[in-house]
Design brief:
Helix content is 32%, strand content 19%. Helix 1 packs across helix 2 and helix 12 runs parallel beside helix 19. The longest helix is centred in the N-terminal third of the chain and has 16 residues.
C-alpha cells in the first residue's frame, strides 16, 4: 500500500491517493482520488493555476507516474508542466510512434495508466499506429496533444491542426481509436474532463483517451474548482445462475481450458481449477506463462508460432466443451480452424460482451460477461466435489524444437532460443518481448515460461517496431531488465536505443540479423511468388556504439553464451547483433494452412514446407 499527499505552499492544492500495488488479483486495487483545485474566485491571494498545470494535477491523481513523448513548440506549456511535476517522470523519446509503443508496454509492466504527449499536426499522426496498438492490446493510456488555437485555424499555421488539415472524426472524437476524445476549448471543461478520465480508467480492460489542448488555452488561468473523486475499479462479476449453468455445461463431459491475455490476472485461480478438474490447458501466444508451460496439463500454444501438440490433443482426447478465458479467438490465436472447435462448443468468458461467439459464429457458445478472476473464483467456490472421478491423463505436451544440422558458421535461430531460455528466461526475471515477424514465431514456439507477464507480443495489430521501442517502456515500468528479440528490419524501422542511453534504461536488444525481411522472403519463396525482401548489410553493434549504447557482435554460435551473459549483467542499454542463418525455416505450419484457407495460392511442389508470412 502506498499513501502520498502533496500540498501547495498556499494550501490550495490537496492531492491524496490510496492505491494497492498488489496486482495479483486482476486489477481489483482500490483507488481513491481526491482533487481540490485550484483557486476559489473569492480568494484573490490564492495560487493561480494554468490549464496545463491543472491537467497535470488531474493526471497525478489518476496515478499516472510516467509520460512518454516528443516535444514541440505548440505544446511547450504542457511539456513544461509535466516536467515540473514532482511525481511524473517525463521520458523524451525520438519518435512519437516509439513513445506510444513504449507507453503501452510501460502500462503492462506497471499496471498504471501512462501518458503520451505530442505536439500538433505530425506529432499526433506519428503516434496513431502506437495508439491503435494500445487500444487493441488493452492498455490504459492518455494522449495529450497540442492543436492550433481557434483564432489561427484556417490561416495556414505551422503544423496546423484543424479541420482544414487533419481528419477530425476518430482522432478528436471517440471511435475505433479512442474510447474518449475531446478538444479542450475552455477551462470550464476541466471538471467534466476529470470525471470522464477517472470513470474511464476505472472500467475493466483497456482505455485510450485523447485530450487535445489548443496552444493558447494551455496558459489560460483556471478559476473553477475541480470535483472531489472517490473511485473503486468496476469489476464485472457473474451471477449465481450464470455460474451454475457454466458448471452444468462443463461437468457434462471432459473440457479443456483455452487462455488468452485477458486471463493474466487470474493465474493462481486458473492453476487451481485445472488441477482440481484435470482439464487440459492451452493458450494464445500473448498468454504464454499464465499457466506454467512446464506443467503436465499444458498441451501447447495455439495459433501463430504454436504447437502441433494442441492438434494431437484435440484428436486423441477431444473435449466436449472448451472454457475460453480472456481471448477473442482471432486469427493469430486460432487461425479460425474448425479442428479446434469441440463438438459442443464453448463456454466463453470475457469482460467485453461483443467478444463471445464472434470468431466462431457457427459454434455453440455460452457467453459470460465477467472479470476472469471473479468468474474462476466463483467457479471454484461452487464446483462439485468430484475429485475422485478425475481422470489422470498423460496429455501431449509442446514438442521440443528440432535443430537442423548447421549449414554454415552462422547462428541457427533454434540454438539462439536455447541460449535465451537458459540464460534469460531461466537465469533472470527479465521480461522478454518478441517483435513481429520470424522473431515472434521462433520465440513463441521455442521459449517456455512458467510465470505470467514475462512474455509480451503484439498479435492483432502486429506492427513492426512495437517491441523494438516497447522494450524501453517495459524496462522503465518494471524498473528492471527487459529484453527484446527483434529482426533487423524492425530494428531499422523504429528504434529508441538513444532514448535508453539518455535515461540509462536497462534494455537489451537481441537482433536477428539475416539481411532481409525474412518472414516475407521465406513466405514468398515457399508460395512460389516473387518479391525482393533483402536489406543492405547493417552493423547494429556499431550503430549502438554510435548513440552511446554497448554493442556486441556475434558471428558464431560458440560466442552466444558469453555475449548474452555480458548483456544481462550490464546496467545500461545493450544491443546484441547476431548473424543469423536466414535459411532456417521458422515454425509456421499452422500459418501456412490459414493462408491457404483464405485463398493464398502456394506452389504445389512446396506445400509440404512451412510458410512464414505476415498477417493479411
Amino acid at each position: 500500500m502506498t499513501d502520498k499527499s502533496l500540498q501547495s505552499n498556499s494550501g490550495n492544492l490537496t492531492l491524496t491517493k490510496t492505491i494497492s500495488n498488489d496486482y495479483s488479483n486482476g486489477h481489483h486495487s482500490k483507488i481513491e482520488a481526491r482533487i481540490s483545485l485550484p483557486t476559489p474566485k473569492n480568494d484573490p491571494g490564492a495560487t493561480r493555476f494554468t490549464v496545463a498545470q491543472a491537467i497535470v494535477k488531474i493526471l497525478e491523481n489518476l496515478q499516472i507516474r510516467e509520460a512518454f513523448g516528443v516535444s514541440g513548440g505548440a505544446m511547450a506549456t504542457v511539456w513544461g508542466a509535466l516536467s515540473d511535476s514532482p511525481v511524473i517522470d517525463v521520458i523524451h523519446c525520438r519518435h512519437e510512434g516509439g513513445a506510444a509503443f513504449a507507453a503501452t508496454e510501460a502500462y503492462f509492466a506497471s499496471n498504471r495508466p501512462i501518458v503520451i504527449f505530442t505536439t500538433a499536426g505530425p506529432g499526433i499522426t506519428n503516434a496513431l499506429t502506437g495508439l491503435l496498438a494500445a487500444r487493441d492490446e488493452g492498455a490504459k493510456v492518455i494522449l495529450l496533444s497540442a492543436c492550433t488555437s481557434a483564432p489561427q485555424r484556417g490561416r495556414w499555421a505551422i503544423q496546423e491542426t484543424s479541420s482544414n488539415s487533419i481528419p477530425q472524426g476518430g482522432i478528436f472524437t471517440p471511435g475505433v481509436l479512442f474510447n474518449y476524445a475531446t478538444v479542450l476549448e475552455s477551462p470550464k471543461q476541466l471538471p467534466q474532463l476529470a470525471k470522464k478520465l477517472a470513470l474511464g480508467l476505472s472500467h475493466p480492460g483497456g482505455y485510450v483517451a485523447h485530450i487535445s489542448i489548443p496552444t493558447a488555452i494551455q496558459t489560460t488561468l483556471v478559476e473553477e474548482s475541480l470535483p472531489n473523486l472517490e473511485l473503486t475499479p468496476i469489476v464485472p462479476a457473474p451471477s449465481p445462475e450464470t455460474i451454475q449453468q457454466a458448471i452444468k455445461l462443463l461437468t457434462e463431459g471432459p473440457f479443456a481450458i483455452w487462455l488468452g491475455f485477458g486471463a493474466r490476472g487470474a493465474a493462481a485461480q486458473i492453476l487451481e481449477l485445472a488441477e482440481k478438474t484435470g482439464a487440459a490447458v492451452m493458450c494464445s501466444p500473448r498468454a504464454k506463462g499464465i499457466f506454467p508451460e512446464n506443467h503436465p496439463q499444458f498441451v501447447g500454444v495455439t495459433g501463430l508460432g504454436g504447437h502441433e501438440s494442441v492438434s494431437q490433443y484435440m484428436q486423441e482426447y477431444p473435449p466436449l466443451r472448451t472454457l475460453v478465458l480472456g481471448t477473442r479467438l482471432g486469427e493469430p490465436t486460432s487461425f479460425w480452424s474448425d479442428s479446434i472447435v469441440p463438438s459442443r462448443g464453448f463456454v466463453h468468458v470475457d469482460i467485453d460482451p461483443s467478444v463471445p461467439g464472434v470468431s466462431y459464429p457457427y459454434a455453440e457458445t455460452f457467453p459470460v460477461v465477467s472479470d476472469i478472476a471473479a468468474f474462476v473464483s466463483a467457479l471454484l467456490k461452487n464446483w462439485p466435489d468430484n475429485s475422485h472421478s478425475k481422470k489422470e491423463i498423460l496429455f501431449p505436451n509442446p514438442e521440443e524444437g528440432q535443430i537442423e544440422p548447421a549449414q554454415s558458421d552462422l547462428v541457427r535461430p533454434q540454438v539462439l532460443m536455447q541460449a535465451i531460455q537458459r540464460i534469460i528466461v531461466e537465469g533472470s526475471d527479465a521480461v522478454v518481448l518478441a517483435e513481429s515477424g520470424n522473431s515472434f514465431t521462433w520465440a513463441t514456439h521455442l521459449l517456455r515460461f512458467s510465470q505470467p507477464l514475462r512474455y509480451r507480443v503484439s498479435t492483432g495489430v502486429g506492427s513492426m517496431g512495437h517491441n523494438v521501442t516497447g522494450v524501453i517502456g517495459a524496462a522503465w515500468g518494471r524498473q528492471g531488465k527487459a529484453v527484446a528479440i527483434v529482426g533487423d528490419g524492425a530494428m531499422l524501422m523504429n528504434s529508441e536505443v538513444s532514448t535508453a542511453v539518455k535515461y540509462q534504461i536497462p534494455a537489451v536488444w537481441l537482433v536477428l540479423n539475416d539481411g532481409c525481411y525474412n518472414m516475407c522472403r521465406q513466405g514468398m519463396s515457399l508460395l512460389g511468388l516473387n518479391g525482393d525482401a533483402n536489406l543492405p548489410f547493417t552493423d547494429f553493434a556499431l550503430m549502438a556504439s554510435a548513440v552511446g549504447a554497448k554493442g556486441i557482435r556475434i558471428e558464431k554460435e560458440s560466442d552466444l553464451e558469453a555475449a548474452l551473459r555480458e548483456a544481462m549483467a550490464a546496467t545500461s542499454p545493450v544491443v546484441v547483433d547476431i548473424a543469423i542463418d536466414r535459411h532456417c525455416l521458422a515454425p509456421s505450419k499452422g500459418r501456412n494452412k490459414g493462408l491457404i484457407a483464405q485463398g493464398i495460392k502456394s506452389n504445389p511442389k512446396k506445400q509440404d514446407h512451412q510458410v512464414s508470412f505476415p498477417l493479411v
